[in-house]
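Can anyone check this?
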Amino acid sequence: MRARSWPVAAALLGALVAATACGGHAKGDGPGAGSGGSAGGDNGAGSDNGAGSSGNGNAAGAAATGCSGTVTFQLVAWQPDGGTAVDYCTDCWSALQILTPNGEAPERSELCQTDCTDCQRALCPPTVACVPQHLPNAGLTLSWDGRFFTYGTCGGGNTCLSPKCAQPGSLWKARLCAHPSIDPGSPACMSGTTDNCVDVPFTYPSNGPVVGVLNPTR
């Protein structure tokens, strides 16, 4: 019996390890966790329509989700001419939020949530620690594949999430954030708790990177 049970145990362990990542989950391929909120507006965030055809965006990045493309974002720090850029700390969780034009932030992950399709709870594996890092001089590159989740009910009133795709041509805002560093010379990035953020409007999908410049006076 021990010889037969070992492959099953190994397979289960492998599945858990594969699901354990920064913002990763087993059901679906949404980006990392985002702020709560219900999607809405005329930008397609609350629509049941699937994505249409588009020549923009990164088709390879959207293949797993079925959405029209991937938007790339670049978070950079302002610097004076000939000077040094202000030092910031970034982390996995707050660097990027996707917002509707009216400021709502739809869920971007179903991690630890119930899937409306089968009314089953998605895996909730332990997540890898996210150590703050200094914002590189060249900036931090992030992405969004156009996928988000809307709330619904299943199984007699249980709250659940359904995957949606942003409609091609819909308007969104990217909120790019970092924490001002309090010790720029330290190898480990140390900061306060106050975010410095910049909101940048964009159309989904986008041909080039959506750039947000952090202003130290903001």
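Reply from J.R.: I decoded it. Confidence is low (pLDDT under 50) at residues 1-64.
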